[in-house]
Amino acid sequence: MSSPDLNLLRTFLAVYRSGSFTAAAGLLGLSQSTVTTQIRSLERELARTLFERLPRGVAPTPVAHDLASRVAAPLDALATATGAAPADRPAPVHLAGPAELLSARVLPALAPLLAAGVRLRVTPGLTDPLLDELRSGRHDLVIATYRPRGRTLTAVPLMDEEFVLVASPAWADGLTERLAAEGPSALHPVPLITYAEDLPIARRYWRHVFHTRLNCPAAVTVPDLRAVKSAVVSGAGFSVLPRYLCEPELTSGALVPLHTPDDPPLNTGYLVQRPGHPANLDVTRVREVLLEAGRGW
Predict the structure, then answer these.
(1) CATH number of 6-81
(2) What is the fold, at CATH topology level, of the domain defined by 93-160+268-294?
(3) C-alpha–C-alpha distance, residues 132 and 139, integer Å
(4) Of 248, 266, 260, 261, whose CA–CA distance to 163 is shortest?
(5) Which residues touch 215 (CB under 8 Å, ≥6 apart)?
(6) Which end of the chain has fewer beta carbons closer than 10 Å to its terminal beta carbon, N or C?
(7) Do domains 6-81 and 93-160+268-294 have the same CATH topology?
(8) Closest to 277 in 3D by CA, of 104, 80, 65
(9) Is 62 left (phi over 0), alpha (psi -120 to 50) or beta?
(10) CB 172, CB 125: distance < 8 Å
(11) What is the rounded end-to-end Cα distance, in angstroms, of the chain?
């Protein structure tokens, strides 16, 4: 059997790394039908199935993983040698995740890499659309608030965030004792500040800690936990916030924990990418630094 055409292998590698024919077509400047035709041609030449079609994107088969491990480095080296990929200036790493976590933890952790010349393009947002964009090839890494399903993406735990019930000292005075004596109904007269109308963090706290449903409507919703924190610090009411975000205010006394459960609610964040080895080695460097930093978060 003759060796496969280089163009077929380049298309294969683009699909393998991006996780979909559509994303690979955009990366290569080809039509989706051309990408589909080329992959089918390569599969016929190899007499092997390379990708399993999924409702969204494709999943590499074991044959694809083996082929990618053998052709990725030579194809990347060829692209560098021919000027298709500049050897002296790797492409920026496209990283996305929750705005608050990016600001408070992620960018400070990556500062040494940035000083060493790694370039970043950072996109804040909610997990669902960011994962869709990751599948389409827009991002290299996404920090997700849950583990994505399916085989088009790979995810590893990054950090556990603890949720804390907080208010300003003006509200907390006397409220902590009432909460301990009366339960969560003691909070009903206090305005609830949250980042979404469906109160996802607060509802989770109520279920986990108080073992009951939250039936207190939001007084203020603002889609940024940093703004929620600012409002609570200013005395607007109470909220449930990730500890990493409000730790300085808890330390300084600007915020007071209203309750200290033995088993506080936790949520695991995941670092997500498409399967396979990224062409840009800086993606791996960013990933390793974040995983190392996450062990201390």
Answers:
(1) 1.10.10.10
(2) D-Maltodextrin-Binding Protein; domain 2 (3.40.190)
(3) 10
(4) 266
(5) none
(6) N
(7) no
(8) 65
(9) alpha
(10) no
(11) 53
Residue 214, C-beta contacts closer than 8 angstroms, at least 6 positions apart:
184, 199, 202, 203, 205, 206, 207
Tokens of 75: 């194809």
Q: How far apart are CA 147 and CA 236, in angstroms?
A: 34
Residue 283 has pLDDT above 60, yes or no: yes
Taking only the tens place, the pLDDT of each residue in 48-102 is: 999 998 877 888 888 988 898 888 888 877 876 766 654 445 678 999 999 999 9
b (16+ CB within 10 A) / e for 42-52: bbeebeeebbe
Residue 105's closest CA among 278, 247, 263? 247
Distance CA 81, CA 191 (A): 62
Please provide the CATH number assigned to the domain covering 161-265: 3.40.190.10
